[in-house]
Amino acid sequence: MIGSRAEKCWRAEGLLRAEATAVWAFAVRNLQMATRNVFLLFELLFWPVVGVSTIGLMTRFLALSTEDAAFVLIGQMAFSIVSTCQLDVAYSVIYDIWSKSMKHQFLAPIGIRHLTIGSWTVGILRGTLVFLLTGGLAAWAFRINVFDPGLGPVVTLLAGCFLTAWIVGVCVCALIMLFGGRAETAAWAPINLVLALSGIYYPVSVLPSAAAHVARAIPLTYFLDTYRSNFGFPSAYPHAALTGFALSAGYVMLSHWALLAAVGRARRTGLLLKMSE
Amino acid sequence: MLAIDARDVAKTFRAGWIGRRETVALDGVSLGVERGAIFGLLGPNGAGKTTLLSIFATLLLPDRGRITVLGLDVVKDATEVRRRLNMASGNASFLWNLRPPEILSFYGRLYGVSGRALRRRVDELLTVCELDPHRRVPYNELSTGLKQRLALAKSLLNDPELLFLDEPTLGLDPDVSTRLRRYVASLRRERGMTIVLTTHYMREAEELCDEIAFIKAGRIFARGSAGDLKRAIQLGDVIALRLDPPDVRLDDAPGVLRAVAANGWIEYTVDAAEKRVPELLQRLHADGVVVRGIEVREPDLEDVFVEMAR
Known about the structure:
The complex is a heterodimer. By secondary structure, chain A is an all-alpha fold.
């Protein structure tokens, strides 16, 4: 009895270690690729800094109040964080498209959770760096301290950004596995639409009514709403953060299923092999 | 005991949303590969070799058929199958700016190897595949031969029971190819690995494979040992003779299929050399003809390939 329990524990530990190792493989690979490519620094430094500087200067030109300036700057920071993190998730298949090495990772006994979680981990790391960098810049250059609301709201906002990035990134991966390298541009395009709809620079209430309905289906809308409520903007939704997390959980499952189905289809149509030639 | 048991495997590729084009890649292939064997898949371009290999390796789903690999169903038990096999392609490609140890470590982790065990395995494979001096070179700066060796090293990371080699010596120098072939043979000898390889080099197939299947238009056209295939195709053996006087002809002798004269030699293609040589020599002796030279040659696999591909 004890022996069988010990054996179960040993097996569970082995499985857990194998899971962690496979996830770690993708995290290390993304990190190595990021550190070897000078242009990837642009994603981390150039665009976020340019974005916050431009928007900050615009708020100065328009003579916005500190609260209003904080509103748009938080949106801009969320834009940079989500973009950076979702690109990392998308890189989990884009790197293999570029290097034509797709089949090797799918020949190994891994699940798609390993490649998405591993890449997402690096995205979280890079997204956090972007947040700290742009937050520091906003405080220094425009006297707007986005860290003011404290650790809880900051962590909630970041979690919302990273979950949104995961969902969009995994959907991009699914599109690539469905249409091949042609869908590669999707890595950079859909995130802009999602962010525009979730009200990065404006309240969702100013959107046309059809778009506002769509915005209500986007988790980031609720996370931005919650965070901005700390800067004097009353929340438009009851239990906004909770709604955001519930929606995210649903989309995480849906996007995971979509990628799973797309990989299955690529195995059926031979696209998986074509992407390795 | 079979490492691969495939029955009635079919695969058709479909392309285009409007005006769909269909290409039949495999059309009812049945095949068995013994454990511990080196099995060759030969055939012209587009015959279906890589498709069949990819289905066995779980990279491609068949439309029809039942396939067990190492006793497991390739569709239902795909993850378990993947744990126990691996594959190296002649045209393999990896992430361009990673170095050989990083590439091997990445794939090693995907097979659950980590920490000290991973470092040891990577070092061992870099040594075995003679990649040690190139540890610091990014993948895109490696030569074709080194890339191929890296692909082979990657395919050995999980110490597979079944190894697929898709054109493993494509584009390699003859000396590198020879070394690689020797290493492949040693894998079977020392580790009892089952190896299935596709190749365009007949010499490679003849040297390595216990059994060969010839695929053409998605069907197994013939299978057996190299000798079996030669016999099946009835290409015949060649007996070359240099005679005195040189104009003696034996075209009407039993078993002679054709005769060609060139450079003072006459080449007789016969059904079976071991039977016909004594008969021909006897007849020549009886006719008082002096035999100045004799050579007996079996057709090589290249001749079989050309004949079958027709």
